[in-house]
Amino acid sequence: TMKNPVPQAASLLLEKLLLLVHVRPLPEGSGEEEPPTPGYYDTSCFKRGDLLEVPRTLFIHFGIYLGENRVAHLMPDILPALTGDRRQIQRVVTNKRLILGVITKTASIRVDTVEDFAYGGSILVNHMDRLFQDQVLGSEEAARRAEKLVGATAYSLLWNNCEHFVTYCRYGAPVSFQTDKFCETVKMIIRDQRSVLASVLVGLASIVCLGLAPSTTLPTIFIPFFLWMAG
């Protein structure tokens, strides 16, 4: 028997959304997961201005190494919109803070230890340099760009996520290959004429990601519907 394409498409879309949002699934029966203890990573091989990349199951998180076990990285976070207390903001971002930050399109470019940034994941160094070849800026320039941007910032899954931040700092152009993959998934789903529900889910997900406004609501609901009808 043929499998129902609706759950498959919805599951695939959810997976890509999690990939871009950087939600970390928590172990069952536990609270927020704790980062490794200081000294877990050997930072002697990192240089100021390096682009650090932490592959996860569903996403990749990016940061710029600033030296002395410090990493600048962009994280969705609701707290900067609610308080100016740096001590509260500097605490490790919980999943609740992160998700609310995505919904309200609020984020911060923060500086954390390598342990807090990577959460036990393996770290790749300057792995994206091969994709940009001669566009790589000097290491000090990359670090200075990152430092200048530290603080509250707008957040967008499609236009301003952690990958946009690091590619701007190290290569001079904000791009996101994860966003490209997400958009390809959306196109694949809305072109699947077997799944009306999946098309509706795409529209609703787009509203959550891009904001509730006539300019986003009407296109995200009606365009998938008409594409399905025309398919």
TrEMBL record:
A GO molecular function held by the record: phosphatidylcholine-retinol O-acyltransferase activity
Protein name per UniProt: Lecithin retinol acyltransferase
Catalytic residues (positions): 162 (acyl-thioester intermediate)
Gene Ontology CC entries for this record: endoplasmic reticulum membrane; late endosome; perinuclear region of cytoplasm; rough endoplasmic reticulum
A Pfam family matched in the record: LRAT
Any one Gene Ontology BP term: retinol metabolic process
LRAT domain ranges (all copies): 51-178
Signal peptide: 1-25
General function of this protein: Transfers the acyl group from the sn-1 position of phosphatidylcholine to all-trans retinol, producing all-trans retinyl esters. Retinyl esters are storage forms of vitamin A. LRAT plays a critical role in vision. It provides the all-trans retinyl ester substrates for the isomerohydrolase which processes the esters into 11-cis-retinol in the retinal pigment epithelium; due to a membrane-associated alcohol dehydrogenase, 11 cis-retinol is oxidized and converted into 11-cis-retinaldehyde which is the chromophore for rhodopsin and the cone photopigments.
EC top class named in words: transferase
Keywords attached to this entry: Acyltransferase, Cytoplasm, Endoplasmic reticulum, Endosome, Lipid metabolism, Membrane, Sensory transduction, Signal, Transferase, Transmembrane, Transmembrane helix, Vision
Membrane topology: Single-pass membrane protein
Gene designation: Lrat
Family label: Belongs to the H-rev107 family.
Superkingdom: Eukaryota
Primary location group: cytoplasm
UniProt EC number: 2.3.1.135
Catalytic activity, as annotated: all-trans-retinol--[retinol-binding protein] + 1,2-dihexadecanoyl-sn-glycero-3-phosphocholine = apo--[retinol-binding protein] + all-trans-retinyl hexadecanoate + 2-hexadecanoyl-sn-glycero-3-phosphocholine; 1,2-diheptanoyl-sn-glycero-3-phosphocholine + all-trans-retinol--[retinol-binding protein] = all-trans-retinyl heptanoate + 2-heptanoyl-sn-glycero-3-phosphocholine + apo--[retinol-binding protein]; 1,2-dihexadecanoyl-sn-glycero-3-phosphocholine + all-trans-retinol = all-trans-retinyl hexadecanoate + 2-hexadecanoyl-sn-glycero-3-phosphocholine; 1,2-didodecanoyl-sn-glycero-3-phosphocholine + all-trans-retinol--[retinol-binding protein] = 2-dodecanoyl-sn-glycero-3-phosphocholine + all-trans-retinyl dodecanoate + apo--[retinol-binding protein]
